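Question thread 4412

I'm putting together a teaching handout and wanted feedback from people who do this every day. The idea is simple: show students a protein as raw sequence, then show them the C-alpha cells that encode its fold, then repeat with a second protein so they can compare. Below is the first pair exactly as I plan to print it.
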Amino acid sequence: MKYVGVLLMIWMMISCGSSSNKFKDSFNPAYQARDAGGLNASVTGSACSINAAKAEDSAKKAASYHLRSLLGNQRYKTEYETVREYVEGEKRCFEIQARAKPI
C-alpha cells in the first residue's frame, strides 16, 4: 500500500509538471539594436506571458535593459513603441522598441 501511494505521488508530479510550462513567463534574450552613434539608438526586446500586461511590461524592461547596456551611463530619455503583438499558444507576446532621446 505504501508503494501505491508513492507511485501515485510520482505520477501526479509528472502529469502536473508537463502542463506547468505554459504558465511560465519568457523573454527572448536576443535583441535587435540600431546604433547610429551618440544617443541615436534603438533596441527591440520581446517577452511572452499568460497576462498581457505582464508580457508588455517585461518586453519594455528587456528593451530598456538592452538599450542601457548599449549606451552605458549617458543621460537620455526612453521612448517606447509597440512593434508587434502576437499570440504564441496560450501566451500573449509583445515586441517593443525602446529609443533613446536626449534630455
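The second pair follows. I'd like the answer to focus on this one:
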Amino acid sequence: MPDLQDHPESEAAVAPASLKRRLFWLLSCMALGLGIGLLGEHLTSDPRWFLALPAALAVGWLFFANPAECEPRQGCGRE
C-alpha cells in the first residue's frame, strides 16, 4: 500500500477553508441568531431571546470550525 505522506498532492486535498466560505458561515450563524432573537422578542416582548445570537455562534463554531487550524505550524521558526 503506498504511503500518502510521500505525495505532495495529498496535502492539497486537506486545504483550509477559504476566507469567503468561513465569512459566509459566520454571517449565516449571526443572521440565524439575530432572526431568532427578533422573532422571539416580537412574540413575547422578552429581550432575553437575543441570547440566541451568541448561542448560534457557539453552535456554528462547533460545526464549522477546524481546531487544527488554531495549532501552530511546524517549522515556523519559533521554538
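Top answer:
Good format. For the second protein you could add a caption like this: Residues 15-65 form one domain. Helices lie at 8-12, 19-44, 52-64.
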